[in-house]
Please model this.
Amino acid sequence: MELPLILLVLGMVVIGAIAQRVAGLGFAMLISPFLVIALGAHQGVFLVNICGVVSSALIMPRVWKDIDWSMFRWLCSFSVFGSVAGALLAGGLPQAPLSIVVGAVVLAALLLSLILVRANVVVEGQIPKGTAGFLSGLTNSLAGVGGPAVSAYAVLARWPQRSFAATLQPFFVVTGLVTIMMKFIVTPDQLPPLPAWAWIAVAVFIWAGVLIGEQVQRVVTDRHARFFVLCFAFFGAITALVSGLRGL
Model:
């Protein structure tokens, strides 16, 4: 992989890590479409899965006291099945259709988030939790984007933001690890061909993004952070969708 492309990847993971630390999610939704365009659908999503695990693992100790472990167990128990199904589906899709899937999933998630902000519906019970977990695992494997399904559930269940953002970190770690394991089994040749130093740099840049995000969190409101993530992700999703359609 050429140096300019590696630098682009590093820049994207910093931005994603900042968003993840500020808003609790947004890493994948923000960078997945751009990495799909830069690396191709399979390698781009694979890299997003790996970076997402690293980012959440770094954030998790910092929000440990706010994690809702009961909610975590419910979501994870179903997300595993979604991750396996998504990895199997993604392995059978060519580059262009998978790029379309990535763009479409992110766009649908963004539109859903805008709609749910105005919703007065409240959901309860275990079925919505399980459904959210399964869909999160499925979309994480397919498109590298696992946050929207649980975000929708959080809005409808009136899950407090602090607990929600904290609980997502171990959830993303587990879901991401299952997804990565499945992809090593199903499509091991799709691991991005980064040199060893670049993988180390990815981890360092994610850590830097987390630290920067902690500083940004003190001066930027949640509303402004979400607005930035939405705008950036909309642009990336549309670009990935168009790129996939042109590749058909």
Remarks:
- The two ends are 25 Å apart (CA to CA).
- Residues 90 and 154 are 27 Å apart (CA to CA).
- The chain has a mean pLDDT of 84.
